[in-house]
Amino acid sequence: MTLAEEELDVREEALAVVAREAGELARRLFLQPSTLGSKLKGQQDFVTAADATVERAIIERLAARFPGDAFLGEEGGASGGGEARWVIDPIDGTANFANGIAHFCVSIAFVVQNEIGLAAIAAPMYGELYLARRGRGASLNGKPMRVSELSDIRFALVELGWSARRPAHEYALMLERLLATGATFLRAGSGALGLAYVAAGRTHGYCELHINSWDAAAALLLVREAGGWTNDFFADEGLTRGNAVLACAPALRETLVAATGVGRKT
Question: Domain limits at 244?
Answer without folding.
Answer: 153-260
